[in-house]
Design goal:
alpha/beta, five-stranded mixed beta sheet, three-stranded antiparallel beta sheet
Amino acid sequence: VIADHPGTELSVETAPSGTLAEAFAGGRLDMAVIVAPHASGDGAAARIDPVWAGARHLPATPPDDIGEDDIGETAGVNRGAGTTPLPLALYDTGCPYRQAAARALAAMGRLWRPVLVSPSNAAVNACIETGMAIGVIDRRRLTPALREIGTDWRLPPLPMHGLHLHRASQARGPASDALEAGLRHAFARMGRI
C-alpha cells in the first residue's frame, strides 16, 4: 500500500479490541479491526469461535479441587471456604474473550483467579501450554500443545464473536481503499473474512 501511494503515512497500533474501539470512537484511528460478541445482522466480516483451552497434558476432567463443588457467589475476587478458583490466563481488560469468560463463569457462580494478564497472544498461549492456567482462545488458534476442554471440564459455553473492520468517514481516497482491500484480502486468506 505504501509503495503504491507515496506520501501516505501508515501507523499501526495493536491493542485489545475494547481499547481499539474506544480509540476509533474517539476519532484517533482511521481504521480498526475489532473483535466483539457476534449478533445476527451486526455486520461482522467473519465469525470467530472462542473456546476454553488447556494444555494437552491436563487431565481429561478437572482435578477435584476445581470441580463442581467449588461454586462460589461471584467470579474473580470472592473466595468461599474450601474453594479453589479456576486459574486463568487472560488478555488485558478490554478484550472481548476476557469479558466473555468472566460473564460466563459469573453466570454459573464459578470462582476464578488470574494467573497471567497480558496483551500478548504468545504469552497467553505459553501460559496455557505449560498447564499453569487455562484460557479462552480462537478455536483456529489451538496449537498441537493445546486442546479444547470446555465440555470435559464442565465450563460454560462461550458466545460466538465477530470480526469487524471499521473505517472512519474521513478515511477516504485511494490509499484508504487500498488498505481496506489489503486487510480484507489478508483476512480472507486466513479464512476470517
